[in-house]
Design goal:
Two copies of one chain form a homodimer.
Chain A lengths: L4 H8 L3 H8 L8 H14 L5 H8 L4 E7 L5 H15 L3 E7 L4 H13 L4 E5 L8 H6 L4 E4 L10 E4 L1 H14 L5 E6 L4 H16 L9 E3 L4 H11 L7 E4 L2 H14 L8 E6 L3 H4 L5 E5 L1 H13 L8 E4 L1 E4 L9
Parallel strand pairs in A: 1-2, 1-3, 3-4, 4-5, 5-11, 6-7, 6-8, 8-9, 9-10
Antiparallel strand pairs in A: 10-12
Helix pairs in contact in A: 1-2, 1-3, 5-13, 8-9, 10-11
Chain A binds a DNA duplex (30 and 30 nucleotides) through helix 2 and helix 4.
Chain lengths: ~325, ~325
DNA sequence: TATATTTCCACAAACGTTTGTGTTGGTGAT
DNA sequence: ATCACCAACACAAACGTTTGTGGAAATATA
């Protein structure tokens, strides 16, 4: 089974201490010759370092933990991609844990697993942490950072898109295309994210002095079904000429239900979605979106997590931008 | 920072040994009264167990590792879901690692990270392990099992769908609908999976004494783009009346390119995909698929991984079945 | 040659648990 | 009163590393 540093020491005729230093590449502690002997012995024995022992004594680990919510939202992949890239560069390992969606217990479990392992840092992707777990996270004394979610009142440091701006930008885009009656669909209005986007939408409508109706905003949970529900709520004969979907998946729901209603997108109805993942490109018509920089979010996440100074850090917005595709066109 | 078992011992006025036994719930070693005192002290100090220390002495961990390839295939989610369910039941933790796609280095790195941590078991999801890593995996003496991939010559134990059967079943389904000229698109013909499916396709065609043409099978990598490429290869005026796509995403590529060619699915061309993820339901027309039981794969994976006897275990196929949706219809 | 410096290495403590083995005091049987 | 026994706990070793310190040999300095 596992060969230890002692076995290597014996085989190479040196002390365990020397083996340790050779294997972790601390120069100025051994000669070239012994280094070679040690390496040869290690290879011969198929040595694998025992991370538990290392972490026990060094009290730090080279792995950072990513906790994601198990939604079917697919942008997490992009964020993780960015994280991995940075981890690679910095020779760090990343482990990923699923916490359920709004499941306090699962969140706690995931949190405990990584805290017990005393990881280098924790990145929480799209996790709406249950308040009962705030303390657990805080008292662990491990750097952490939320990604792709916003908090009020400096509750936690985070990196996200500016959700207000997202709502605002989507709306003004549509307004400037001549739309007047614009729906806002399928966002979770209990979430801060949903509220910010809605606020952005309202601000834009206000600024252009466009009246709105409560019927135009539909509650939901960013899911596909919420998109079809929203469209059903608007109805076959809707007065809306455009609608903003809270996610790509929700937009697809709207598209499909619109088609079922025989309302043509984009001719009868313009749709712009929020996120801009690959889904936008594989459906027809392709969906015009407010595209978020998820990969960048992952990269910046790693950078600020590792950069220290998280205490002074509060929040950072990554860029967004309209990606024009086919699902939205000018009106009137 | 971290309170240790010793701190608790001191506060509770007992020995560390007793604290350990209380906290890990070994009865018959302490009185109710001291147990209460220990628990109270632990809570008061915000104690978090040091997993490194535990694993160091016990030489086992309660976490199983899942290594996934970072494809944009979305079935991994379902498999992980099944895994998580079982882990929950058995009070195990699961950590997920990304290994790149056919990237020997990344595979090695992921493998090493989990081996060094001496996890309880390793589940490799859709990982086509580079032969250079075979030894690493084998010599670790950690139970492992591949999921959603097949191997020749008993190279590794795995649980997967029967890929030959998938190809066969997709083909006979189409044949019995009256199709004669059937394409086989976008599978990676260098992969064993691709070859098995192709063999199944050929067997079916043979059994029905249907001639085939090399032009009808297109190489690829299960990706969206491979679907559109395949369709381009078949051409606007294709003689094919049906095509089997190697994945849902590839099927969507075919759908879109077909639409671009103005060939109507399913009227002009029937499409059946392999996988049957949610993607099949959110595009129009909905895609008829050979649906795999990914969740079951995850569940069975955990069960056999934990069941021991992996040495006697060779392979296990999980169920498949046609899910009829809208993209395929009778011909002639 | 004598001393100082450097190079290379070994010794041993420490990290926070678990767990086998002692030890104590108390209870019941003889 | 003696013994055996049991409950309830403490002691200490062990797990595989890292790292501060000390020391011998080799080299440089005077």
């Amino acid at each position: 089974m596992g060969a230890t540093i002692k076995d290597i020491a014996e085989l190479a005729g040196v002390s365990p201490a020397t083996v340790s230093r050779v294997l972790s590449g601390q120069s100025d502690f051994y000669s070239e010759k012994t280094a070679r002997r040690v390496h040869r012995a290690a290879k011969k024995l198929g040595y694998q370092k025992n991370t538990s022992a290392v972490e026990l004594v060094t009290k730090t680990s080279k792995t950072i933990a990513v906790i994601v919510s198990s939604t079917q939202t697919n942008f997490a992949d992009q964020i993780i991609d960015g994280i991995q890239e940075q981890a690679m560069q910095k020779d760090l390992n990343v482990i990923i844990l699923y916490a359920g969606e709004k499941n306090a217990k699962l969140q706690k479990r995931a949190l405990e697993t990584v805290i017990e392992r005393s990881v280098l840092g924790i990145l929480l992707v799209a996790i709406d942490l249950d308040p009962s777990n705030d303390n657990l996270l805080r008292s662990a004394n491990i750097p952490f950072l939320f990604l792709s979610i916003c908090f009020r009142n400096h509750r936690f440091p985070f990196i996200s898109s500016d959700d207000f701006k997202i709502g605002y930008q989507a709306t003004t885009y549509l307004i400037e295309k001549g739309h007047v009656k614009i729906g806002f669909a399928a966002a979770d209005l209990e979430s801060f994210t949903g509220q910010l986007r809605l606020a952005g939408y309202r601000r834009a409508m206000d600024e252009y002095q466009l009246p709105t109706s409560p019927d135009w905003v539909s509650d939901g949970d960013f899911a596909y079904e919420d998109g079809v529900l929203a469209m059903k709520q608007y109805g076959e004969e809707t007065q809306l000429t455009a609608v903003i979907a809270s996610s790509d998946l929700a937009a697809i729901g709207i598209l499909n239900q619109a088609q079922a209603f025989n309302v043509k997108v984009p001719n009868d109805l313009s749709v712009v979605s929020i996120d801009g993942t690959y889904l936008c490109n594989i459906v027809r018509p392709r969906i015009t979106s407010v595209t978020q920089s998820f990969r960048e979010m992952g990269i910046k996440g790693m950078q600020t997590l590792l950069g220290g100074k998280l205490d002074q850090f509060d929040l950072l917005y990554t860029g967004i931008g309209i990606t024009e595709r086919e699902s939205a066109k000018s009106h009137g």
